[in-house]
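Record 1 of the preview.
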Amino acid sequence: MMLRDAVHDYIDWRQAHGAKFHAGAYLLHRFLKHVGGSAGCDAVSQADVLDFLAGTGPLTRYRASKYGVLAGFYRYAISRGYVIRSPLPARDDEPARPRSSPPYVYSRNELQRLFDAIDVSRQRSIQIDADTLRALLLLLYGAGLRFGEAQRLTLDDADLPDALLTIRDTKFHKARLVPVAPQLADALRAYAASRAERPLPKDTASTFLANRDGTPLARGTIHGAFAKLLKAAGIGAPNDGRRAPCLHSLRHAAAVHRLESWYRQGADVQRLLPVLATWLGHADLNGTQVYLSMTPELLHQASVRFDTYVNGGDHELSKHPRPLAPPLPGRIHRHRAQPRPQHAEELPRHLRPPSPVRPRQDPQAGRAARGARSHGTALCGSSSTISKVTAPVPCRPATSGCRRSAPSRASSPAVIPYISSGAPASAPLPRRRRHRSRSAGSAKPS
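->
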């Protein structure tokens, strides 16, 4: 079977089972272009696959993505009988995935420069005008949308009178409602008025963001326009190990700036973190917690919060800020001293009196204790002194040699056996039942 036909069958099969598989399909088409789609499935050698995996640049996490897509395709091809074996190298022979570089987060100064340079960068534009590019950047930063979500947003989904956006067909196959601030809503209303003058191919189901001719925005065209905008604003790739600035960095900046504002306002960030996760459309909190330590400014705000909690805000850190890396706020709450309930039945461990040391007893005292327990009583004082005691009520001294027993640790009332020596007898022992009598040698220790 031809390699091209097998790849198309696999893509159709994945998408028929509910997967979007856009990135995987893109990688497989690149693989076809690299090895030649007209070749047979068995004609692909391991050298061809290794050359495709290596690429032309340094080792990145992209290699692991390519390996995963090809592994899935060849499992499908082997199960259908298209190939006999997989030309992929063993997974253990693959290089370790490099550590992911931290994303780029725009500062507020850089954001201002970006928006100021929009008109200059779009002077000779053909498809994307300045108003459309500005509206796109406002949606990515002001509403925290992904590029694909802003690209698919329709006129029906933008409820501008109520300042509410309905985001559909998201990354995790979910929909969400995103409220927008009044200032952003006014800017979107102004763009919607100009958008109504352009062609509407699908009436109100047409995309909210569109080119001059009314067609939806293309990803490649947008990335080219944004590259020109970065150049006009004087923002380039950093040399500190971070990724290069891109459109998705606006979403990162929206999340980080929101967290910084909460820290400055003294809000409970841990309580508000699920709200931010819902606003961003994350599947869980793991994707949102990465923003807690993304910038030095955010770490400094957390440091000031931690110093205020420990020192009451009078420490040197609050007066002379320094960019420290404190424990995450989640750890602060776990280490905070919480008041423990004081129950009548049990004292806290650090206030509990030491357990009394039981002295050695003679066999006669052991028999007395066993007889007392058989009647549901406890011994307090000498071997002949008996007091009925149930926890948490302390023993009442019967003689001058009696010692109070410690409260029981049991949650329900229980008999406390306690034996002490050295006090005179003050009460006769109870008579034992004949059928329970045992010899002194067979008695169990009390």
